[in-house]
Design goal:
By secondary structure, the chain is mainly α. About 60% of the residues lie in helices and about 5% in strands. The chain has one domain. The chain is built from five helices and two strands; from the N terminus they run ααααββα. Helix 4 packs antiparallel against helix 5. It is globular. It starts with a helix and ends in a 16-residue tail after the last helix.
Length: about 150
């Protein structure tokens, strides 16, 4: 599957299709298009938020199909995002910055920084595992999620 076909498939034909399987090329070409689009829209304020909301469902669907193509449940695709969200909401060792001087108001404790470092390493390990899974070739045989995708 080429770049244009992948983008067209993910945005029109399979916009919110979470069932079935998605080929490696479909997923990665679509992710490349998503990143290029994000770089372009990031030049204007508030446009990145609209862009992310508009493409939230197709990105999630493409990730679900890709995980299912490798024989794993599609909902696994949300694990890194949920972990990242929890880290941002409940992260330890956040530094409060004075808006006037740009200097830290109060530094976090050494224990808080150590916990943040450990949680960061866990996040990195999760990212490496998921990149490995998403780059694996398709199962050549039909699996629990359907027949192999057309390349």
């Amino acid at each position: 599957m080429d770049f244009q076909t992948s983008v067209k498939t993910c945005l029109t034909q399979k916009y919110a299709t979470f069932s079935g399987r998605g080929s490696r090329s479909e997923f990665w070409w679509f992710m490349l298009a998503y990143v290029i689009g994000m770089l372009i829209v990031s030049l204007l304020p508030f446009l990145p938020i609209i862009y992310m909301l508009a493409l939230f469902v197709p990105v999630l669907a493409a990730g679900f199909r890709r995980m299912q193509d490798t024989g794993r449940p599609g909902w696994y695709f949300v694990i890194p995002s949920v972990y990242n969200l929890l880290m941002r909401l409940f992260g330890v060792g956040q530094v409060e910055i004075d808006p006037q001087t740009g200097m830290p108001l109060d530094m976090p404790s050494a224990g808080g920084m150590m916990i943040s470092a450990v949680l960061g390493v866990i996040g990195l390990a999760i990212a490496i595992v998921f990149i490995y899974w998403l780059t694996r070739p398709s199962d050549p045989e039909p699996n629990a999620y359907g027949p192999p995708p057309r390349a």
